[in-house]
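Subject: Protein record for review, amino acid sequence with backbone structure tokens
Why sent: The fold of this protein is of interest and is recorded here as tokens.
Notation: Tokens come from a learned vocabulary of local backbone shapes, not from coordinates.
Attached in line: The record itself begins immediately under this heading.
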Amino acid sequence: MVRFVSLLVVAILFIPMNFVWAKEVVYDRILVKINDNIITQYDLDEKMKPILMKVKDRQLSETEKKQIEQLRKQSLENMVSDELLAQEVIKYGIVISDEAIDKEIATVKEQRGLSDEEFIDMIKQDGLTIEEFRQMLTKMIQKQELLGYMVHSKVLVTDTEIQKEYEARRDDYLLEKMVDLAIILLPSEISAVEVGKRIDDGELTFAQAAEKFSIGPGKDQGGSIGEVNWSDLADDWKEAITGVEDGGVGTPLVVQGKEALLSPVKTVEDRLVPLEEVKDDIFEHLMQKKRETVFNDYFEKLKQSSVIIYMDESAMPEIGVSQ
């Protein structure tokens, strides 16, 4: 239940006839009523405290003031949503045991490699006591349990949907152009033009020429230097083999101060990442989309069936909440 703290302050009222007296006024006014519960000004101020603390010593511009006011309205809207979910937790009797909280805390400490003392120090840095942290964790797990019951259990993704999504997002799974490249690096006394002509005339294959003349890598494997991403090739390498058919010989170029010839042994374009490699990612993507859709539908119906009254119209969200 949203905490209601009654806070009385003394206000000095100046009135005609030079009379002055003290009057008690309620500072902790009610901002929103949600069914049988309320959210107060104090609740909202506590929520905004971390933000306000950061700017308390600054002279804010008008733009910054408007931004903070927008954050205040957004915080209040979030608090309304949290309260609705908290009421649903009570409605469905979702209870989290101390053992479950202990286990969750142990997991947090293990994941972050924290001792008991370090864990407590971390909580203190967030301005929380261990009991406040446990309460916060309890609420979080309760909401997860609620959403698991109301949302996740109603979501199903089929193999057919995964296949359709894979095909619809084909461009996302295209691999870049690859070329299986071979090179002949020639000694200074041998002309690249002459060797290239002999290959073009069919006198020698590129592999034979590499074995016979090359002083570069892979000469015993036809000059092969393996598969290379097209985008990784230097501009002069790309220019030398652009338009050359697989197995052909490119125009001469200079590599490491020596004449050279390149051959695109095999060029592969329009390759797709295999479905099996991205199936899990697509599954999670579709599940998340469906969860959001189901949750939004569930939450909209929850708001419509609830009595939500904003006591101050200026605090209402721009997109109206059912009242």
Q: What stands out?
A: The two ends are 19 Å apart (CA to CA). Residues 143 and 149 are 10 Å apart (CA to CA). The longest strand covers residues 258-268.
